[in-house]
Write a structure and sequence with these properties.
Coiled coil: 463-490
Protein name: Tetratricopeptide repeat protein
Signal peptide: 1-19
Distance between the termini: 54 Å
CATH class of the domain at 493-576: Mainly Alpha
Organism: Spongiibacter nanhainus
Number of strands: 0
CATH topology of the domain at 493-576: Serine Threonine Protein Phosphatase 5, Tetratricopeptide repeat
Oligomer: single chain
InterPro entries: CellSynth/LPSAsmb/PSIAsmb, TPR-like_helical_dom_sf, TPR_rpt
Largest sheet: none
CATH architecture of the domain at 493-576: Alpha Horseshoe
Length: 576
């Protein structure tokens, strides 16, 4: 029994859940009602008479809600909110859009609603939630603060979760503003939880634990505080204590999906039988959740409960939203078992669904390794016929196989065919230019890269590629230098561009300056091409020992580096 083989698979399934806490904030009826009836019941009665056609559309919307056709209902409410300007209809539109997680629509109508009722805490909550779901936590913060000021129940944790995915400076700005709110509301548990979440993310575990335990002292069954506490304990490596606290949390909150799911996933590492028991409870509580079903299927496979696993697999494959994912996971497991043919079959099947990107790459790599490059190319070409919407991606994967198998003419011909179908695709143009360079076809290289630059004049990759190619294949060194300088303006720290610039300087005879630039590139990455260039510059500068050392490092990185061996032959340091 491959007890731990399932762990990396389940870990990959957990990534989105752990990213996570956007949806692990405490739920309220305003944020995520169990059905739309709660939000509908709260809708104010229309405040002024409507024309007959308006009532007709509102009646259609009402009937659509009764039939759970919520998209139709939303469309009708939007239409009538715009026509009538009625506060009640605007409010219902905002609530329904929020329930459907149509965040832009929610924001639009919540702002209209706010103009009519500026001191309504529900509106500020709805607007803050919509903004945070659009990854605008700083814009959401004043509205959630206003909820507190107006005496409502706030949910700062959802905003903090959104802030975690923003750039570092935005997260820091959010944290500082949240600290200011904490000084005004030092005993508000929602603020404490949000700050704890940020501390956990920043690996300041003791500060996180202090805050959540303040919350739990006042509210021992607070699900979100328990969730952060157990995850922080796991982060500290205190797995046993974390599982004990998770079990307590689940006992206190038996219907809380996130807590039980966290417990089940943690038990996969220590006790598959207990994990299975928790997944089975989840499966009964949430029978439509295919994520739970997928993980339960994996656990049953590890426990050799093949009959149960097969039935669950049958359900997953029949499920429109999980079939591709199930095949991808089974492909991974088959690879671990070195069952290449089964893995290929699953990856092929997974390529027709949401797992297309990951599955088709595994399919190509595995087929090339275990079958042949030609067989892998045939598989990708067949998929291209079946999935024309993914043709560009598949062409590029085929081209990559041809590049790694050193077939530049076939790669060039393939991409020429691709460009006949997709003439403006920059990825195809760029890829073909690389093959054209290998073939010494400077005209095509220049045409393809200038085609990209005509549409995107500051495309650093194209500027660098064109400059580097002109330097290698023509005598137009000044033009090449200007192109690479423009690329450096866009990406000043890119080692490939720095290398190009240093190489051009070397070709122009500016040896000392070339060494400076090439050493800067080599300090970032010991790529064999940079090693070839730096070694040659050092050799010309008279530092032969250092040059040999650099070439040696490059060969350690890429043992059969053609560019290093070509350099050594050109410098007559080895025989042909």
């Amino acid at each position: 029994m491959r007890f731990f083989a399932v762990l990396p698979i389940v870990a990959s399934l957990v990534l989105s859940a752990c990213a996570a806490l956007n949806d692990s904030a405490p739920q309220s009826s305003a944020d995520a009602p169990a059905s739309y009836s709660a939000a509908k019941a709260a809708a104010p009665v229309p405040s002024r008479p409507f024309p007959d056609d308006a009532f007709s559309d509102l009646l259609v919307a009402e009937m659509a809600m009764r039939n759970q056709d919520l998209q139709t209902a939303l469309a009708k409410y939007q239409q009538q909110a715009d026509i009538t300007g009625d506060t009640g209809v605007i409010a219902t539109t905002a609530r329904l859009a929020q329930f459907l997680r149509d965040n832009e629509t929610t924001e639009k109508y919540a702002r209209q609603w706010l103009q009519r009722e500026p001191d309504n805490p529900e509106i500020h909550f709805v607007l803050a939630t919509a903004l945070s779901r659009q990854q605008k936590p700083l814009a959401a913060l004043p509205h959630m603060t206003r909820v507190l000021e107006l005496g409502g129940d706030a949910n700062f944790a959802a905003l903090a979760a959104a802030a975690l995915s923003r750039p570092e400076q935005q997260l820091e700005d959010f944290r500082l503003q949240l600290d200011g709110i904490a000084k005004r509301y030092p005993h508000d548990n929602s603020v404490r939880i949000a700050r704890a979440l940020i501390f956990q993310y920043q690996q300041q575990e003791e500060k996180a634990l202090k805050l959540v335990r303040q919350v739990l002292d006042e509210d021992p069954d607070n699900a979100h505080a328990l969730l952060i506490e157990t995850r922080t304990l796991k982060q500290l490596g205190r797995d046993g204590e974390a599982i004990d606290r998770m079990k307590h949390a689940v006992d206190q909150n038996p219907s809380n999906k996130r807590l039980r799911h966290d417990l089940a996933r943690s038990l996969v590492k220590t006790d598959l039988y207990q994990a299975k028991a928790q997944y089975e409870v989840l499966s009964r509580q949430f029978p439509g959740d295919t994520d739970v079903l997928l993980e339960l299927m994996l656990v049953n496979r590890e426990l050799d409960r093949f009959d149960e696993a097969e039935e669950q697999l049958r359900q997953l494959i029949a499920s429109e939203d999980q079939s591709s994912r199930a095949h991808f996971v089974l492909g991974r497991l088959a690879e671990e078992d070195r069952d290449w043919q089964t893995a290929l079959e699953h990856y092929q099947a997974a390529s027709y669904g949401e797992e297309f990107d990951r599955a088709v790459r595994r399919l190509a790599a595995l087929s090339a390794a275990e079958e042949s490059t030609d067989r892998a190319l045939a598989r990708l070409a067949a998929l291209r016929e079946d999935l024309p919407q993914h043709a560009v991606t598949l062409y590029l994967l085929e081209a990559e196989l041809l590049r790694t198998s050193a077939q530049p003419q076939r790669g060039f011909d393939l991409l020429s065919d691709a460009l006949a179908e997709h003439p403006d695709d920059e990825g195809l143009r760029y890829a073909r230019s690389l093959f054209a360079e290998k073939l010494g076809n400077i005209e095509v290289v220049e045409n393809d890269l200038r085609h990209i630059l005509k549409r995107d004049p500051n495309n650093a990759a194209a500027l660098n590629a064109l400059g580097y190619t002109l330097a290698n294949l023509t005598s137009r060194l000044d033009e090449a230098e200007q192109l690479v300088k423009r690329a450096l303006q866009q990406e000043p720290d890119d080692p490939a561009i720095i290398d190009s610039y240093g190489w051009i300087l070397l070709l122009k005879g500016q040896v000392e300056e070339a060494v400076t630039w090439l050493e800067k590139a080599f300090a970032q990455t010991q790529d064999h091409e940079i090693a070839a260039h730096l070694g040659e510059a050092l050799w010309q500068a008279g530092d032969q020992q250092r040059a040999k050392s650099v070439w040696k490092q490059g060969l350690e990185h890429t043992p059969n580096s053609p560019i290093i061996y070509d350099t050594l032959r050109r410098l007559k340091l080895m025989n042909d």
